[in-house]
Design goal:
By secondary structure, the protein is mainly alpha-helical. It contains 5 helices and no strands. The chain has helices spanning 3-16, 29-36, 41-44, 49-65, 70-73. It is flat, with a radius of gyration of 16 Å.
Length: 94
């Protein structure tokens, strides 16, 4: 982290306290390449730091929203790459 990045982080934490997520997205060449190629980081570099960081952030968001990730609802036997799917407790009528 650069000194300026740390100053920015410290300022955000001071101003917004508990509203700031603890997950940090690390810089990565692959993160910059993915949108240029029209791909998500999960398709471009699924095992890289960027994918892991964004997956951790999505987990933190779901936790704050008190929503179970689909991996806890559905069987985890699937070999597919992760995607962000939200399962709610709402009942659908129809």
């Amino acid at each position: 982290q650069t000194c300026r990045t740390q100053e920015t982080w410290d300022g955000m934490v001071a101003a917004f306290t508990s509203q700031v997520f603890s997950t940090k997205i690390r810089r990565s060449v692959k993160l910059r390449e993915a949108p240029a190629l029209g791909r998500t980081i999960f398709h471009h570099d699924p095992d890289g730091n960027g994918a892991h960081d964004y997956l951790a952030l999505s987990g933190e968001v779901l936790e704050r929203l008190n929503v179970k990730p689909v991996s806890q609802v559905a069987s985890e036997s699937s070999a597919t790459r992760p995607s962000l799917v939200v399962v709610t407790n709402e009942v659908q009528h129809g």
